[in-house]
Amino acid sequence: MPPMRAHLLARLSLPTPGAPGQRHPHPQGQVIVKLPLLRSAAFLRRVNRFRAEVFIDGSYAAAHVPNSGRLTDLLRPYVPVYVHPATRPGRKTAYDLLLVQYTDQVLVSIDARLPPKLFAEALPTGLFDGWLRAPGDQWEVQTEPAHGEGRLDLYLSGPQNSAWWIETKSVTLVNRGVALFPDAPTARGRRHLADLCALAQRGQRAAVIFLVQRPDAESFAPHPEADPKFPAVLQQAADCGVAVHAYTCRVSLTHIEIERAIPVSLTPPRD
């Protein structure tokens, strides 16, 4: 190991989960999604999109990164992270990298697999009742419904034959209080918006939900620096009648929940 690297790692003070983190119940008393048991580590480098090297318990280990975004603002050398030991036999990585300690006050979930579950679990809390136009506990949820040649995240069927097609997106990038999506070019994300647009044009209800997996955003906007085509596609979807909503999340070492709605701008922020 290079001397400087060894010196930095030796001095690195890693946070430890220790006792279970503070529980953050929903105002109605529901904890939304429970996280698996986590261990503290230090991020070292991104080997490729889905693989990272971390330093844990005095040695190096490979960790799966469940996010295809660039994450350059989060995954900096020696930043404290939280990982979950892998249990599936034959895996090439020993851990899943799930949380990043961005600041002392801001813990960020980078698991892009979580938003559909977060949204579905939050339905009974009433957080979305205003735009769903019916109480959340009256909806039946189908996951990964087929549409055309692909799939969307959720299909909600509710009272009086009402229904919604829902696509959720994981947001981890926040700049000056503005949550930005995407964090990398996303042809798949643009295709999902086009699918929602087609559904809305046929008179069906459709929505895209941007879930900011951190608490420090005050608004949401598209991010043309990552994908120049995305803002126009998002605007087109909204013009078709697709509902566009964004919510922040409250993240602890034991739980994550959708916390509050934030304003959505369909135009990129000005520098």
Mean pLDDT: 89
Largest sheet: 7 strands, mixed
- Give the distance, in angstroms, between the N- and C-terminal Cα atoms: 41 Å
Instruction: Decide which structural class fits the backbone.
Output: alpha+beta
Number of domains: 2
What is the CATH class name of the largest domain?
Alpha Beta
Poorly predicted segments: 16-29
Q: Strand-and-helix sequence, N→C?
A: HEEEEEEEHHEEEEEEEHEEHEE
Secondary-structure arrangement, i.e. CATH architecture of the largest domain? 3-Layer(aba) Sandwich
CATH topology of the largest domain: Trna Endonuclease, Chain: A, domain 1
Share of helix, binned:
10-25%
Helix count equals 5
Notes on the structure:
The chain is of the alpha+beta class. The protein has two domains: 3-109, OB fold (Dihydrolipoamide Acetyltransferase, E2P); 115-262, Trna Endonuclease, Chain: A, domain 1. The chain has five helices and 18 strands. It has helices at 3-11, 115-122, 129-132, 187-201, 230-240, and strands at residues 33-34, 39-48, 51-56, 59-64, 80-85, 95-101, 107-109, 140-143, 146-147, 150-151, 154-157, 163-171, 173-175, 178-181, 205-212, 219-222, 243-251, 255-262. The strands form four sheets. The protein has a seven-stranded mixed β-sheet. A five-stranded mixed barrel has the order 2-3-4-6-5. α4 (187-201) runs parallel beside α5. The N and C termini lie far apart (41 Å).
Keyphrases for this structure?
Trna Endonuclease, Chain: A, domain 1; OB fold (Dihydrolipoamide Acetyltransferase, E2P); 271 residues; 5-stranded mixed β-barrel; alpha+beta; 7-stranded mixed β-sheet; 2 domains
